[in-house]
Design goal:
The strands form two sheets. A three-stranded antiparallel sheet has the order 1-2-3, with no helix packed on it. A three-stranded mixed sheet has the order 4-5-6. Strand 2 and strand 3 form a beta hairpin. It has three helices and six strands; from the N terminus they run E-E-E-H-E-E-H-H-E. The protein is globular, with a radius of gyration of 17 Å. The two termini are 33 Å apart. It has 141 residues and is of the alpha+beta class.
Length: 141
């Protein structure tokens, strides 16, 4: 399905999981380190799974706000999303991801919260990108 691109950005990584990544405009600049659980030294720095989790969490809040702007339930000002991204070997070979989103919508009735979350999951670009290859678990906090 074609996308009418309204914004794009670019980032460059050097050195893989034990290297460096930065956006070409310089607004994001991170040192990358491999977690001990994946055979790395750990230590100061970030890894791709952390960056993915932060991006998905922020984007999902944006998707909920979009749904609200289209007549859906309003997003409480203190709403938050915690994205947990796991990585590990797949039985078919290679590596795969596992994702869980825990969504807190304080003060919103549970039926409204469920409606908002499910509609947001249909429009969120990260949800659309993962649909069909990664099982994303949704949980209301």
């Amino acid at each position: 399905m074609p996308t009418d691109v309204l914004y794009s950005t670019a980032a460059r990584a050097d050195g893989g999981r034990d290297g460096h990544a930065a956006t070409l405009d310089g607004s994001l600049d991170v040192r990358l380190t491999t977690p001990k659980e994946l055979g790395g030294a750990g230590g100061a720095g970030n890894n791709p799974e952390q960056l993915f989790a932060a991006g998905y969490a922020a984007c999902f809040i944006g998707a909920m706000k979009f749904v609200a702007s289209q007549g859906g339930p309003k997003v409480p000002p203190d709403a938050n999303v915690t994205a947990t991204v796991g990585i590990g070997p797949r039985s078919e070979g290679g590596f795969g991801l596992e994702i869980a989103l825990e969504i807190a919508l304080p003060g919103l009735a549970s039926d409204q919260a469920e409606t908002l979350v499910h509609k947001a999951h249909e429009v969120c670009p990260y949800s659309n990108a993962t649909r069909g290859n990664i099982d994303v678990k949704l949980k209301l906090a």
